[in-house]
Write a structure and sequence with these properties.
By secondary structure, this protein is an alpha+beta fold. The chain has 2 domains: 3-73, Glutaredoxin (3-Layer(aba) Sandwich); 84-209, Up-down Bundle (Glutathione S-transferase Yfyf (Class Pi), Chain A, domain 2), CATH 1.20.1050.10. The chain has helices at residues 11-23, 39-44, 63-73, 84-118, 125-146, 160-173, 184-195, 197-209, and strands at residues 3-5, 28-30, 52-55, 58-61. The protein is globular, with a radius of gyration of 17 Å. The two termini are 27 Å apart. The structure holds glutathione.
Amino acid sequence: MLKVHGVPLSPFVRKALLTLEYKGIDYDLVPVMPASDDPGFRAMSPLGKIPVLEHDGFTIPDSSIVCRYLDRVFPDKPIYPSYPALEAKATWIEEFADTKLMEACAGLFQQKFLFPKLMNKPTDEAIVDNILRNVMPAALAYVESITPESGPMVGDHITIADIAIVTCFAQSQYADFEVPSDYPRLKAYLAGAMANETVAGRITSERKQMGL
Ligand SMILES: N[C@@H](CCC(=O)N[C@@H](CS)C(=O)NCC(=O)O)C(=O)O
């Protein structure tokens, strides 16, 4: 059985799980905390990051590499377009989501949910303020500018761009962050994306797994 090492509330683990579930591939989730110093985990993930994929004795870390590997090994319902310009666009959006958008969304999650609700640590309001004033608006403005009037982010079917964007906003939902109405295309896109069967199912499962 294919295994994913990580925890369900990690947005990068969620990216891999959404890919597996969208494609209908069975897997086991092996619980490992981020930055775990377990030697077996470090051998698979030298940077100490989750997720790690384990498949047929082969292991590989990093959600982007994992998702691309899964798309090659399980080509049904492809998530990387075959047309080069669309593939480049989808992987660029994945990169933007994994970096700038994630900084904003995961930062809010950490300060407003993880620390106060799961780790008994105080929220740093200065960090929250900086995210809301500076980091988030710039990220939202860019995503709004590339969001189509309707349909998926790139081309005519779900791609890694949708999966990478959705996992970010699934993260910021835990911090009760709502996209303001100044970003109407993104807001409409997210309403549809969050209602998608795979996405809604994943969020329900992770909440249940975490007892939330
Ligand atoms: N580029 C990596 C990022 C993964 C990542 O940052 N995972 C976080 C958890 S959400 C982690 O394991 N952090 C531990 C650390 O940075 O030490 C990917 O796409 O998988």
